[in-house]
Amino acid sequence: MNEKKTRELFTRDPNNPILSVKDWPYEVNSVFNAAAAEVNGEVLLLVRAEDFRGISHFTVARSKNGSSDWRIDSEPTLRADPAGHPEEIWGIEDPRITWLKELGKWAIAYTAYSRGGPLVSLATTGDFKTFERLGPVMPPEDKDAALFPVKFGGNWAMLHRPVARSLNFPANIWISYSPDLRHWGNHQEIIYAREGSWWDANKVGLSAPPLETSEGWLISYHGVRTTASGSIYRLGLVLLDYENPAHVLHRTDEWIFGPKAAYEREGDVDDVVFTCGWIVRDGIVYMYYGAADSCIALATAKLDDLVSFVKKCPNHAPGDWWKN
Ligand code: BMA
Predict the structure, then answer these.
(1) What is the pLDDT of residue 2?
(2) Number of domains making up the chain
(3) Is residue 35 part of a domain?
(4) Which of 288, 293, 296 for a ligand 1 pocket mutation test, highest count of atoms within 8 Å of Cβ?
């Protein structure tokens, strides 16, 4: 195996991959890209499971220590509903969970795979057993969305990643606002793919949802580099202003986590680390990530280390990253 050195802020869990199809109570092709939340003192993962048609659904897995002894729902917890929601005809993918204290509910932003392409849908739940769908909130092509846990000036805020398919532009991260979670506006493009030979040249998309820190909102994002043998998915960090999350304070120039272990380098899609969720326990970030679109792995880091690392990084505006 070609061992590549990347930033070693995160440590891979010795149990990796912590969840794979052999752990699943029913037959699936792959389990990956899971949302994460701490619910009733346990780590809850809302796992994307792909069936043998290629269509994905979500299944809940729970663990006290967040690494082993997972209890997995015996059947899909949330299935696509193409009859009631035609935009889910080709499945539901890549969920991100946010606790909305004001509503006393969890919000789930996920990709609904419609005939027109992937789009962003929202649902809420209080117990991860029953779910209320709010339906599509962004038309295709758009994905990689998560809500902030609080309102800004009376509005909810959401990060997401639209793609202009008619243009050959790289895909960038936007922020949008809503008074009611259903109607979204004040759209602003805030995090750009860096083009050229950069590791995040071809696409960027939100990875783990905004995490409140003393220095602002910490997010991770995936950067995609297209190579002769396919795409490489790696992760970077961004710190957003606490009061105005449209304002990018810092962004890592280098990727901070990339495919390195065998289970990340080879699978249904090679060379992919893709996170949809992290939680913080006792100052430690537990980052759950899909590896090679085939299994779920865990890596941990000190939250303080992540924040001080990203704070040392410049915020290069598009086009001026050679300065400094
Ligand atoms: C992205 C998403 C992810 C997937 C990744 C790598 O576009 O669709 O669900 O993990 O590609 O295949």
Answers:
(1) 45
(2) 1
(3) yes
(4) 293
pTM of the predicted model as reported, rounded to 2 decimal places: 0.95
The string of pLDDT tens digits covering residues 152-201 is 999 999 999 999 876 667 799 999 999 999 999 999 999 999 888 999 99
- 144 is in which domain, residue-wise? 13-314
CB of 293 within 6 A of ligand 1: the answer is yes
Question: Is residue 1 a part of any domain in this protein?
Answer: no
**Sheet strands (E) in 148-303:** 156-162, 173-178, 185-191, 203-206, 211-213, 216-227, 230-240, 248-251, 273-281, 284-291, 295-302
Q: Which atom of ligand 1 has the smallest separation from the CA of 268?
A: 12
Categorize the per-residue pLDDT at 1 as very low, low, confident or very high, splitting at 50, 70 and 90.
Answer: very low
pLDDT of residue 319: 52
C-beta of 271 in contact with ligand 1 (< 6 A): no
- Percent pLDDT > 90 in the chain is 91
Average pLDDT, the chain: 94
Atom from ligand 1 closest to the CA of residue 93: 9
From 165, 224, 274, mutation site for ligand 1 pocket: most ligand atoms within 8 A of C-beta: 274
Residue type, 293: D
Residue 307 lies in a domain: yes
Rg, C-alpha atoms of the chain:
18
Distance CA 290, CA 21 (A): 12
Tokens of 288: 């759950």
Q: 104 alpha carbon to ligand 1 midpoint, in Å? A: 31
The CATH number given to whatever domain includes residue 51 is 2.115.10.20
Residue 137 covered by a domain: yes
